[in-house]
Amino acid sequence: MRLAVIPARGGSKRIPRKNIKPFCGKPMIAWSIQAALASRCFDRIIVSTDDDEIAAVAREWGAQTPFMRPAALSDDHTGTVPVIAHAITEIQQAGVSLEAVCCLYATAPFVAADDLIAGLDRLEGEDVDYAFSVTSYAFPIQRALRMTPKGRVAMFEPEHFNTRSQDLEEAWHDAGQFYWGCPAAWLAGRSLFSERAVPVKLPRHRVQDIDTPEDWQRAEWLFKAWKAASGESV
Fold first, then answer.
1. Angle at 43 between CA 37 and CA 44, to 5 degrees
2. Is 106 helix (H, G, I), strand (E, B) or coil?
3. 179-207 confidence digits (pLDDT tens)
4. Cα(126)–Cα(139) distance, integer angstroms
């Protein structure tokens, strides 16, 4: 079985009820569920949550909630890997054999079915633990600045002050959308970022962290522009 696990706890503080807050006409989590369904990659799509209202909304949009996440895995400090490992354990205890497990974030409205398919293809086609979404930095990280204690500026890597941008290695970062993984890797707590992982590259215009109200507004602008360019309405 191929399983999608959407983590969605109820305790978001910076944007209250973020996982089910309306985003471009639908609860935020609905976009992730619909992308998972459209990909046809999954035998089951489940939501791991500690919140009854989130569970009800998830079921309304086509996901399953076969268990409630324990409080010990629902605080601000719990990482993604333990949450997915818990979900895998719950499903396996029901006698289900898992082939591949995808963590799909509830706040990833830009996720596309084709990208989920590409991630599965990479996981199954190579000897790796994980395949996950990445995008490139818009500016060379080697020329990044920091603020000093005196409020001045300094380069992180001053040796690159005169290096041309085109001569610097391109840098990438986690896009925060999905992480395909082998069940054994999740259960063993192996790192997502290692030589045992491969990237699924996404364009920068489809990547946006949504942690603050400003992020939310920017994400809606980008999302509407993306859908309009694709000939879709929201």
1. 75
2. coil
3. 999 999 999 999 999 999 999 999 999 99
4. 31
